[in-house]
Amino acid sequence: MGDPLATTDARPLDPLREPQYRRFWSAAFVSNTGGWMQNATIPYVVYQITGSAGDVGVAGFFHYVPFLLMGLVGGSLADRFPRRVLLVVFQLSQAGVAVALWAVVVSGSATTASLSALGFLSGLLGGVNTPIWQSFVAELVPRRLLLGAVTLNSAQFNAGRALGPFLAGIVIVVWGAAAAFLFNAASFAVVVVVIASIRVRSDERRRERPSETSIVEALRYVRRTPAILTCCGAVGLIAAFGSSLFNYLPVYGESEFTVTGAQLGLLLGASGIGAVIVTPILLGFQHRVEGAHRLAGAMAAYGASVVVIGAVPSYGVAVAALLVFGASYLVIAATMNTTIQIVVREDLRGKVIAIYLMCLTGGLPIGLLLWGQVAEAIGLRATTVAAGVSLVAVTVLFAWTGRFRAMAIDARSAGAGRGAAAQAVSERR
User: Fold this and answer.
1) pTM of the full structure
2) Is CATH 3.40.50.2300 the classification given to domain 14-198+210-415?
3) Exposed site from 17, 91, 204, 417, fewest CB < 10 Å?
4) What does the domain layout of the chain look like in residue ranges?
5) What is the DSSP letter of 5?
């Protein structure tokens, strides 16, 4: 059965025909490339300083845990104030942190503590920025193009995830690790210029005032909406067991494969390359395969690829498995983001997206700490295998308890409701 959220008359690349979305998409690619350069460089610098997988986990924890703390703040702001203006403010703020990271590393005074502190500050700003960013995408295209727009947005994010770490590996060898942070700071300028030129309906101040009651209402709404609840539960577990692997790839490169430069960059960027490769396939078949089925298959493949990376001590096999890892994650992210964007009530969009991102960013720092501590005790490879097996087990559990089925039913109902509303509007015209 086809995805009820898809619109058959919309072609996969149609969102790029919308000028504002096209400009935003291009700028976001530049920014995400810089951001992933920074994300790959921080654990590299920490491991170079300490030689400890545990310290890599600690730095990652402090980088990502603020996303959990600040997500609802960003969601509330997104539902009240002009999202375009908010994005400009937070892009500039994050650029300032990137410059500070550059200054600390280039001066030779970087420590795990200083990198963790600046990572924490970057995470605070990023935690507020992310739900605003995700909500903003829905304003740039008509609803019939939202499925393609979210998928293309995930594609550019993963293209940045491929190119950023690859470039980081080269930049580190040629100019040193500090230069990667400077490149990230410069990338924010492109985004600010583009966003400042865009005008959307959220430029009018929202009347709704963020309050504790509205946040509680959003939590209740998530709890009673199976499609969104399934996405929130899945993304937290995926982050904890699978996404934490990315932060430990520099450890694999340094201690397991002893690679540097372009080879290290390929290892760090392979998952993003896999996502880019699968994008045309996803754009072609996502209209024909129900979202819940896509999510179940992708979660199983994601977990299996993690097992292979830990079980097979080969650089080539690891790169191949990371291609599958990234391709699977693109399907997971695009499916869950699209489902939430279309199912959610408009007045709760920012807060619900924030709750979803809190599940993601809550699972990630916990997973990073857990990976680091377990790796110190039993080794990184055994930890990786255990995490991958856990992901496969989670997928089986979700299928056995009917979560994927409930997600499909809820999504079909939402799709039917949207279709009926659109038809009613058309008839009134």
Assistant:
1) 0.69
2) no
3) 204
4) 14-198+210-415
5) T
